[in-house]
Design goal:
Distance between the termini of chain A: 38 Å
Order of helices and strands of chain A: HEEHEHEEEE
Oligomer: heterodimer
Strand content of chain B: under 5%
Shape of chain A: elongated
Largest sheet of chain B: none
Order of helices and strands of chain B: HHHHHHHHHH
Number of helices of chain A: 3
Radius of gyration of chain A: 17 Å
Chain lengths: ~160, ~250
């Protein structure tokens, strides 16, 4: 495969999040820049949460998947200038997340977080009669809700400032 | 040129508080009163320890400090700068919850202010950590207000936890002497006294709504010493346990 921007982005679509395997690093908005030099391809990425335990694994995966696809030297760095927020997640990423059974984050516009947990739509039955059970869940990026319409617990990808 | 010793000291104070509080939070793993609380304290533990690591990393990269893992686990007790508040054992759930409430609001205020720090490497990190800590304060506020409305005994226990925690919590804002004045003058941060006042304003409204009385600061003695390396009897055993695996082979990689 020719080493150009289009092919790099195509290859990045193959790098999945280890905790939410339906989302790739582009769906999550984790890639901040792709540049070239005579040394190879430089990719910059940002973690979703500061303490995300999967960052190093994702970094290594980006490198090995891109190297396999493009047969050139790949350097992956953490971008310290940018920080992740939930608005970086793409629309198609949100759709995939919902189909996976996790409610995607609503667009965040600087309000108090508590507002964002009222009537969170249930991914199983689309009901809105729900309440927040806990702002913490099975991974740092998820909250737990309960849906009174279908009587099930569900997870929600938290909005993050 | 910002005074590197003073800024390194400030970052160590913040990181050590987060590290020790994170380890105390982790002690609720498997023991939380309900499953959601077990998960909440475990998640907050993961966040805090990650935040401590990110701060140690800045010390290493920007201020010629040592490797974050070595710095976190191999120092002598007197070289830790955490306050006594975070060293105390978890005790009953009321104490843990009130400590979490007071500690996390203090952290939130600190990171909000550090977004404007003249020490540039802190700005993006402070913004990020502030966003994450909002979930910690959201959690703390919900539980403090619910338990204060859950009957006489519950309210009384929350009040006694607040009374016990407050002098210790003031230790989060122990004055830093000349080094602190340098950091204020260089606009690295607004200083401990200013942070403490903002914190009191913020917690006052929530505590009042929960019908809790904040002890009068003038009638109590703040618990200081941690920032100067004087610690409680609880820190050394915690450090030993926390670093036991690391010390078996400090050069190991995962």
């Amino acid at each position: 495969m020719e080493v150009n921007e289009q092919n790099i982005y195509k290859a990045l679509e193959l790098v999945m999040d280890p905790e939410i395997p339906v989302l790739n690093v582009l769906d999550l908005g984790m890639i901040t820049s792709v540049t070239f030099s005579d040394k190879g391809v430089h990719v910059k990425m940002i973690p979703t949460f500061a303490a995300c335990p999967a960052v190093e694994l994702i970094r290594r995966n980006i490198r090995s998947v891109l190297q396999d696809q493009l047969h050139t030297e790949i350097m992956v760095e953490i971008d310290k200038e940018e920080s992740w927020n939930s608005n970086r997640m793409t629309e198609s990423g949100k759709e995939k997340l919902k189909n996976f059974g996790i409610t995607p984050p609503k667009p965040y516009n600087g309000e108090d977080y508590s507002e964002y947990f009222l009537g969170t739509t249930c991914p199983h039955c689309n009901g809105n009669d729900t309440y927040l059970r806990s702002p913490f869940g099975s991974t740092l990026c998820r909250a737990i809700h309960f849906c009174k319409d279908c009587g099930q617990v569900f997870e929600h990808f938290k909005p993050l400032d | 040129m910002i005074n590197t010793t003073a800024i390194s000291n400030l970052l160590t104070v913040m990181a050590d508080d987060a590290l020790i509080q994170g380890h105390r939070n982790s002690e609720w793993t498997g023991l939380g009163p309900i499953m959601e609380e077990d998960i909440a304290f475990s998640s907050m533990a993961q966040d805090k320890i990650g935040h401590a690591w990110a701060l140690y990393k800045i010390i290493q990269e920007e201020l010629k400090g040592s490797d974050p893992d070595q710095f976190a686990f191999l120092r002598n007790e007197k070289d830790y700068k955490c306050c006594h508040f975070v060293e105390h054992p978890n005790g009953e759930y009321d104490f843990s919850l009130m400590r979490h409430f007071l500690f996390d609001h203090a952290e939130a205020i600190r990171y909000e202010q550090l977004q404007q720090s003249s020490f540039q490497p802190l700005q993006p990190l402070a913004k990020k950590l502030k966003g994450e800590i909002k979930y910690h304060t959201l959690h703390a506020n919900a539980w403090v207000s619910q338990l204060c409305r859950a009957g006489e005994e519950s309210h009384a226990r929350m009040q006694s936890a607040l009374t016990a925690c407050f002098p210790l919590a003031l230790g989060l804002f122990e004055p830093g002497g000349e080094a602190e004045q340098i950091l204020i003058a260089e606009k690295v941060y607004p200083g401990e006294k200013a942070l403490k006042e903002m914190w009191q304003d913020r917690i006052y409204n929530i505590l009042t709504a929960a019908a809790l009385n904040l002890p009068d600061e003038n009638t109590i003695e703040p618990v200081y010493g941690g920032r100067k390396g004087y610690h409680t009897i609880y820190l050394q055993p915690l450090l030993e346990e926390m670093g036991a695996v690391f010390r078996t082979d400090p050069a190991a990689t995962w």
